[in-house]
């Protein structure tokens, strides 16, 4: 990677991946784009940044051509709950945005990273130890766009030789960005409520177990996959990866070890509960471990400790 473009640079992953790549490759060599200005002014001030719509093929191609981009991290997308609220918009942004990027990558010989998700699975998928290669019949627009995205990346790799790589992320947890419309965002919301000294109203049932990952592990996985020798990758795209699996009540109990008076009650959102019920409880990530040496660093206890160390509010109460 010499010259890098990051779409969705102000989102949950992009807001942390952008400064990390600038630190490693030089600020001028990493260009961020998003449809809105960054919440963190350091994203815009720390290197080149363009405010544009991911579907603007002309503007994107000009950026790639003029800056001699060789690698694109395509992170721009609507997330699960947001996508379900406006499925037509989700299809337009998630699919046409990806197709635009793949076409530009084909024309200018760029490598492409595309993040998939546990949302790419559905009710018929085995929920425990979910295989790398298994039935994928999601019943949400978000999941449908992720499956089609995986297939498009495979198609462009097979027919045009585009170096497309990707990961099926579990729910991602980060202290640097607020929730962005995902079904697993309850976890981030719970941390912020606890840090403020407030109780939390959870929109999923207390026993809803899902795969999760702390952002430092997610960033490490992206960089490790993109640096892997393509000749060693049997799948190259849509690798299952995971780090931990827990329920809202288990997360609340882990937080209470640090903030004993923290309380959670449950007000179930039927839409997000139905989405969560259709997703795996725990994915099998043996393909990623065998093909490019993936392993996670953070378990639940380590993540909770680190999250609470970094989230600070004036009313925070600690044990």
- What is the annotated CATH architecture of the largest domain? 3-Layer(aba) Sandwich
Structural class: alpha/beta
Q: How does the overall form come out from the CA principal axes?
A: globular
CATH H-level name of the largest domain... which superfamily? NAD(P)-binding Rossmann-like Domain
Low-confidence stretches: none
CATH class descriptor of the largest domain: Alpha Beta
Separation of the first and last Cα atoms: 45 Å
Give me some keywords for this one.
single chain; 319 residues; alpha/beta; Rossmann fold; UDP-galactose 4-epimerase, domain 1; seven-stranded parallel β-sheet; three-stranded mixed β-sheet; globular
Compact description:
The protein has helices at residues 14-25, 41-45, 57-67, 80-85, 87-108, 141-160, 186-196, 215-227, 248-256, 270-277, 286-292, 300-310; strands spanning 4-7, 30-34, 49-51, 71-74, 111-117, 128-130, 164-169, 171-173, 200-202, 210-214, 239-240, 244-246, 264-266, 282-283.
Q: Could you characterize what this model shows?
A:
The chain has 319 residues and is an alpha/beta fold. It folds into two domains: 4-170 and 215-240, NAD(P)-binding Rossmann-like Domain (Rossmann fold, 3-Layer(aba) Sandwich), CATH 3.40.50.720; 172-212 and 244-310, UDP-galactose 4-epimerase, domain 1 (Alpha-Beta Complex), CATH 3.90.25.10. 42% of the residues lie in helices and 17% in strands. It is built from twelve helices and 14 strands. The strands form four sheets. The chain has a seven-stranded parallel β-sheet with strand order 3-2-1-4-5-7-11, with helices on both faces. Strands 8-10-12 form a three-stranded mixed β-sheet. Helix 5 (87-108) packs parallel to helix 6 and helix 7 (186-196) runs parallel beside helix 9. The longest helix is centred in the first third of the chain and has 22 residues, at 87-108. The radius of gyration is 19 Å and the shape is globular. The N and C termini lie far apart (45 Å).
């Amino acid at each position: 990677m010499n010259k890098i473009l990051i779409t969705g640079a102000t989102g949950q992953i992009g807001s942390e991946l952008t400064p990390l790549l600038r630190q490693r490759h030089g600020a001028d060599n990493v260009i961020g784009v998003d449809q809105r200005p960054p919440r963190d002014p350091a994203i815009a001030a720390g290197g080149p940044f363009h405010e544009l719509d991911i579907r603007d093929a002309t503007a994107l191609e000009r950026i790639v051509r003029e800056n001699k981009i060789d690698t694109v991290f395509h992170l721009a997308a609507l997330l699960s709950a947001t996508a379900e609220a406006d499925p037509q918009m989700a299809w337009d942004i998630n699919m046409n945005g990806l197709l635009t990027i793949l076409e530009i990558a084909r024309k200018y010989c760029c490598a492409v990273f595309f993040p998939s998700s546990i949302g790419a699975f559905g009710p018929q998928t085995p929920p425990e130890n979910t295989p790398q290669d298994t039935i994928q019949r999601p019943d949400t627009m978000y999941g449908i766009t992720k499956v089609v995205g995986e297939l498009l990346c495979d198609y462009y790799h097979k027919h045009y030789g585009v170096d497309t790589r990707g990961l099926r992320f579990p729910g991602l947890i980060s202290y640097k960005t607020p929730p962005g419309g995902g079904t697993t965002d309850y976890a981030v919301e719970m941390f912020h409520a606890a840090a403020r000294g407030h109780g939390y109203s959870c929109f999923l049932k207390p026993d809803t177990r899902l795969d999760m990952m702390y952002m430092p592990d997610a960033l490490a996985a992206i960089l490790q996959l993109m640096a892997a020798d393509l000749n060693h990758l049997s799948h190259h795209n849509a690798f299952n990866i995971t780090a931990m699996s827990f329920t809202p009540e288990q997360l609340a109990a882990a937080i209470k070890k640090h903030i004993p008076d923290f309380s959670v009650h449950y007000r179930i959102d039927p839409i997000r509960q139905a989405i969560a019920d259709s997703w795996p409880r725990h994915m099998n990530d043996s393909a990623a471990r065998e093909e490019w040496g993936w392993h996670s660093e953070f378990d639940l206890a380590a993540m909770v400790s680190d999250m609470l160390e970094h989230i600070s509010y004036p009313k925070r109460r600690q044990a």
